[in-house]
Amino acid sequence: MGTFAVNNFGDTRSGGLAGPMGLFIIVLLSIATVLLIRNMNKRVRRLPDSFPDVRQTQREAEIARLNADLERSDDGTVADRVDADRSTVVDTGVDDEVKAVTTERDGGSADGDPRRV
Q1: Which residues contact 107 (CB under 8 A, 6 or more apart)?
Q2: What are the boundaries of each domain within the chain?
Q3: What are the boundaries of the region Disordered (predicted)?
Q4: How many angstroms separate the CA atoms of 95 and 101, rounded?
């Protein structure tokens, strides 16, 4: 009759390196993960509880700069001139209105272009 069960899958006893190599990779990745978590925890602990408001910091810097400018003036004349300039109206005699000059030829724009008014 013959043989009923035949092993045609090759030699299964030699070259068994896949199991130990897989275990080595898993252990290596586990160690790397633990070290990464410890490092990130140290970095997070070093962070401040809250970060300063950027707009508030800029305002404080501007106030400090203005105070330093005022302290640099010998007798406070800079502050007096600034307040005086704001409170008085100086009339220069110049009208704020701009008036265009038109040519008699076309009755249009000042540069003579009939398409522009």
Answers
A1: none
A2: 53-86
A3: 93-117
A4: 16
